[in-house]
Amino acid sequence: MALVAALSCAAQEDYLSNVRYSADSPAIFEKVAGALEPYKDEPAGELIVRCAKEFLGTEYVASTLEIEPERLTINMDKTDCILFVEMCLAMVQTVKGEDPSFETFCRNTQNLRYIDGKVDGYASRNHYTSAWIRQGEANGFFKEVTHDLGGRRFWQELNFMSTHPASYKQLAADETLVDEIRRVERSLKGDCWILPQADLARLAEGVHSGDIICFCTPVDGLDIGHVAIAVEQDGQMHFIHASTKAMKVVIDSQTIADYVKAHKSTNGIRVVRLK
């Protein structure tokens, strides 16, 4: 038994040696996991709201993953919008699992962030939120419910990254990566669903607290401009997000519908529901 324990410990250390994580992340993980543990049998949607609230006030910092060479990078002390949602989802998966350890949290994050859960260079990351949604659905983590809520069909073609390589230092430095990104973009082409801004006040009534809210952008070649977690406040549906305005994680004072109406960079939402 002692030998088995030693081998298990060695395997954990070997995996974590390939993970780039901030010095504070393991302690933050233990704190949040401890706070969630008494509630681990709650539905995932309720637990992710509890988790999101544990990160209120966390500093917003962009581009924390843009470090070479490409490795799984964990920063629980700073975040952007998609990494915040991803972090909360990975925490829920970890707390509900059989081994609620920091290593398991890192593995769960990797399975969300990278194509087929494999870190294999810059192009192996799920850069488009549509790819992130597709993989999460395939792995049974959640389901997109935009259609079920009365969404409108639209045709999606993504090409922003491959047509703007100069905006991404890795693509600017290596043309072969552009071809790899282009293949991913082509695989995401097809019918999608949106709750459009014009109908959102009515259709958003079907959103549940704990749903993942993906704010769609009208920018050609892009899909999602912002991501958040829905939370009910005083009978209305608001959202928790890593805010570029507040520069930290906050519960937004606007409802989801009001936020979309006030931002020209957003033309509707897609909704993902945890299982």
Q: What's the CATH C level of the largest domain?
A: Mainly Beta
Sum up the overall morphology in one term.
globular
Which structural class should the secondary elements be placed in? alpha+beta
* Percent of residues in β-strands: 15-25%
Number of domains: 2
Describe the biggest sheet? Answer: 8 strands, antiparallel
In angstroms, what is the radius of gyration? 19 Å
| Oligomeric grouping of the chains | single chain
| CATH homologous superfamily annotation of the largest domain | putative xylanase like domain
Find the CATH topology of the largest domain.
putative xylanase like fold
Low-confidence stretches: 2-8
Helix and strand topology:
Layout: H1 2-16, E1 20-21, H2 25-36, H3 44-54, E2 59-60, E3 73-74, E4 78-79, H4 81-96, H5 102-113, H6 129-138, E5 142-144, E6 152-156, H7 160-163, H8 169-173, H9 175-187, E7 190-196, H10 200-203, E8 212-216, E9 224-233, E10 236-243, E11 248-251, H11 256-262, E12 268-274
Helix pairs in contact: 2-4, 3-4, 4-5
Please tag this protein with its features.
40% helix; 275 residues; 21% strand; putative xylanase like fold; two-stranded parallel sheet; 12 strands; alpha+beta; globular; 2 domains; disordered N terminus; Putative xylanase fold
Description of the structure:
By secondary structure, the chain is an alpha+beta fold. It folds into two domains: 120 residues, Putative xylanase like domain (Putative xylanase fold, Orthogonal Bundle), CATH 1.10.3670.10; 133 residues, Roll (putative xylanase like fold). Helix content is 40%, strand content 21%. The strands form three sheets. Strands 5, 6, 7, 8, 9, 10, 11 and 12 form an eight-stranded antiparallel β-sheet that branches. The N terminus is likely disordered.
